[in-house]
Design goal:
By secondary structure, this protein is mainly alpha-helical. The protein has helices spanning 2-16, 21-39, 42-52, 58-81, 86-112, 123-126, 133-158, 165-196, 202-245, 247-253, 271-289, 295-306, 311-331, 344-352, 354-361, 364-380.
């Protein structure tokens, strides 16, 4: 389920950036991993046998997907740890050719083998001594073991050079995944070897090995997803937090006519585009309010807030009070302060501190309290 979800989430990226080799390779790797886990479930093995009328046809399908997964894993590691070069391209092509040959050999050996009895759980050990099916089983195990060993070696050599924390997390997942893959191979080899000697260690193949295969598929897939999804999710979280933080200021100024015509951006538009639009509309509204901004009110509110708040918070509270007063003046519901020219100092302060101003608007009681204090002081001073 986790791999299927990752594949679904990755699919829109594939559509947008299908020319990117890394995106294509990651999507293919997730596809192969998900396909393996789908095919090897007992219910699906039985369905394949019934639909095709070919006993044990799920074996070459599952082992082919597993082999493709191994090849894509190796090439993905090479893409990450090596700069693009002709040598790298040749090595990657060689890996694809070798593993394509393994897949072809898997189908040939299966077609040559005589496997009339459907085996849902113990195919590897049941047919361990059958001509051609024996070679079929050993071939996929050997290809899988070699890929796990080579991948683990490349990652071990590369790990000290990795500095990016997301990439390091991915490498750790990969190393853990390939380690579980080697445990899977060891359990399978031991069970098959026992069959050759007349012993019965089938439990290693039917009970011990499958959990290792599941863990390998999940960890390796996540190892390739984390370095790509991690930075995206980090940026998305940061943008989402900022988008919500700017909401009070946007709401306070959204009824003002923008300086330019509104561009309609739907709720399904990318978050970074919606954030950019929200910031732009706030700046447009502040430019529209600039003739109504009271410099003196800003300074008095800042001084009043500074007594009980940090400098950043005081600027935010002063900005919130000034924006509210300017908005009231613009709408004709408050004392008119129209200088005829922009108020450069306070307007610049507001534009530079929209995050702090909006954050202050999240606490309307504090803003209203200091605004009342400033207005009360203004009322008393003329009679002093």
């Amino acid at each position: 389920m986790l791999l299927a979800l990752a594949l679904v989430l990755k699919f829109p990226t594939l559509l947008r950036a299908w020319r990117d080799p890394d995106v294509r390779a990651t999507t293919l790797l997730l596809t192969w991993a998900a396909a393996v886990l789908v095919v090897i479930t007992p219910a699906n093995i039985e369905r394949l046998n019934q639909w095709t009328g070919v006993p044990n046809i799920a074996a070459p399908w599952a082992y082919s997907f597993l082999t493709a997964f191994c090849a894509t894993s190796l090439t993905m590691i090479m893409r990450w740890r090596e700069e693009p070069s002709e040598r790298r391209r040749r090595r990657m092509r060689l890996i694809y050719l070798v593993y394509a040959g393994v897949i072809a050999a898997l189908w040939v050996t299966f077609l040559l083998a005589d496997v009339p009895v459907p085996r849902i759980y113990d195919l590897d050990t049941y047919y361990a001594g059958t001509a051609w099916m024996r070679e079929h089983i050993l071939l996929y195990l050997l290809a899988h073991m070699v890929s796990a060993l080579v991948a683990a070696y490349m990652l071990w050599k590369w790990f000290p050079q990795v500095e990016n924390r997301w990439m390091k997390s991915g490498v750790v997942c990969l190393q853990s995944g390939f380690a579980f893959g080697l445990f899977y191979d060891a359990a399978k080899w031991a069970a098959i070897g026992a069959r050759w000697t007349g012993a019965d260690w089938d439990a290693l193949s039917t009970q011990a090995a499958p959990p290792f295969a599941l863990l390998e598929a999940i960890l390796v897939a996540m190892g390739f997803i984390v370095p790509q999804a991690g930075p995206f999710l980090q940026k998305w979280t940061r943008d989402q937090r900022e988008y919500r933080r700017l909401y009070p200021l946007w709401r306070a100024t959204r009824l003002l006519s923008p300086a330019a015509a509104k561009a309609r951006i739907g709720v399904w538009a990318p978050l970074d585009l919606r954030l950019l639009q929200r910031r732009q509309r706030i700046h447009d509204a502040l430019r529209l309010l600039s003739p109504y901004v009271d410099d003196g009110l800003y300074e008095r509110a800042y001084t009043a807030a500074l007594g009980t708040h940090t400098e950043k918070a005081a600027h935010g509270i002063a900005g919130a009070i000034t924006v509210q007063a300017a908005t009231d003046a613009y709408r004709g519901t408050g004392p008119l302060h129209h200088s005829g020219n922009p108020a450069p100092q306070s307007t610049s302060e507001l534009s530079d501190r929209i995050d702090a101003v909006s954050q202050a608007m999240h606490r309307p009681r504090i803003v209203d309290s200091i605004r009342h204090e400033v207005i009360s002081t203004e009322s008393v001073n003329p009679h002093a």
